[in-house]
Amino acid sequence: xxxxxxxxxxxxxxxxxxxxxxxxxxxxxxxxxxxxxxxxxxxxxxxxxxxxxxxxxxxxxxxxxxxxxxxxxxxxxxxxxxxxxxxxxxxxxxxxxxxxxxxxxxxxxxxxxxxxxxxxxxxxxxxxxxxxxxxxxxxxxxxxxxxxxxxxxxxxxxxxxxxxxxxxxxxxxxxxxxxxxxxxxxxxxxxxxxxxxxxxxxxxxxxxxxxxxxxxxxxxxxxxxxxxxxxxxxxxxxxxxxxxxxxxxxxxxxxxxxxxxxxxxxxxxxxxxxxxxxxxxxxxxxxxxxxxxxxxxxxxxxxxxxxxxxxxxxxxxxxxxxxxxxxxxxxxxxxxxxxxxxxxxxxxxxxxxxxxxxxxxxxxxxxxxxxxxxxxxxxxxxxxxxxxxxxxxxxx
Length: 396
Description:
Blueprint: E1 4-8, H1 14-26, E2 29-33, H2 40-53, E3 59-63, H3 68-81, E4 86-90, E5 107-111, H4 115-118, H5 124-136, E6 139-142, H6 145-154, E7 165-167, H7 189-205, E8 216-221, H8 234-243, E9 247-252, H9 258-265, E10 272-275, H10 280-288, E11 292-297, H11 306-313, E12 318-321, H12 324-327, E13 339-341, H13 348-358, H14 360-377, H15 380-394
Helix pairs in contact: 1-3, 7-10, 8-13, 11-14
């Protein structure tokens, strides 16, 4: 059985060094990724590492979120201590900047995260580092075609060629026992009731008045940082809350920028609340609550809106900012699978949110269509097969 070792350099201990080097002696994959707790990257990394176990003898996951010097020293130690067949980089900049410290001649797979292509290309220094990494890579993985087009436009041949790219959507799973097989996927009443109990406790902790019975909760799962742009919808949501005092916008996730968090707290009179990060399983329970009106994504940049799509899998309508990474979810669909808004168009968010509150038939239909789209196109088996094929081609 292969071993997956997750190393967080912020809490580095000598005992971890011994275990990791031993794993590298048996293994053939070095997986570099920024994996802060309660993040989409942490979920993605754990899932992909599970796929890699089936192809190789061992996997070591290196959290590149620590101090640069410590990460460099550990990578040099690991890469000189064992036979690395493949290096996987999740994020062309955050992980890619450390590739130069990996010795040997392993195959290199770069998985674009989203902000590397959507945001960091504007920084000449980071772009140059990513250009070097992309040129060195044997395979470049994008979550959707829009991300691939942006990457190909930035790095033209001979840096990259079309053959280097693979489009592999991230799979979406639920931590709860949803009946995902077969023709229907209604959330069982027992999960609704469990979700309602957890939602009441959740709302009590973040200060939503318990006297409200017909609650309409807009859940916004995200790390509080600038690229997620949480403030872009609060003024329009204030108008929704004024017209519908039972509607609340609740941000849930870790705080990365305190000033932004403090700014959110100034909007509590507008129906805005904040809750600290919860586990993925707990978030899915909240999605199953009958009080959850929709899941909100207001990011300026996305590779793929993973948390919102997990809500969609639970049958929750999604209200997404109209950006390429989010729009890819609705491409090639016969019916609308999500609602969209554009902060550049005044009233866009308010109109979409108000319709979800007022038109329950529309909200239910949107939730069902979104759920079916995620079930049909983002299955775990498809993602696993795609990565297995890629890796088997690189390392026969």
